[in-house]
Amino acid sequence: MERKLREIAEEAAAAVQSAENLGQLNDIRVRVLGKKGSLTQVLRGMGSLSADERPKIGQVANEVREQIEVELGNRLNKLKAIEKQIKIKAEKIDITLPGRPVILGKKHPLTTVTEEIQNIFLGMGFTIAEGPEIEHDYYNFEALNLPKDHPARDMQDTFFITDEVLLRTHTSPVQVHTMEKTVPGLPVKIIAPGKVYRRDDDATHSPMFHQIEGLAIDKKITFSDLKGVLQVFAEEMFGYQTKTRFRPSYFPFTEPSAEVDISCVMCGGKGCRVCSHTGWLEVLGSGMVHPRVLEMSGYDSEEVTGFAFGMGVERIAMLKYGIDDLRLLFDNDLRFLGQF
Question: Name one GO biological process term (predicted).
Answer without folding.
Answer: phenylalanyl-tRNA aminoacylation
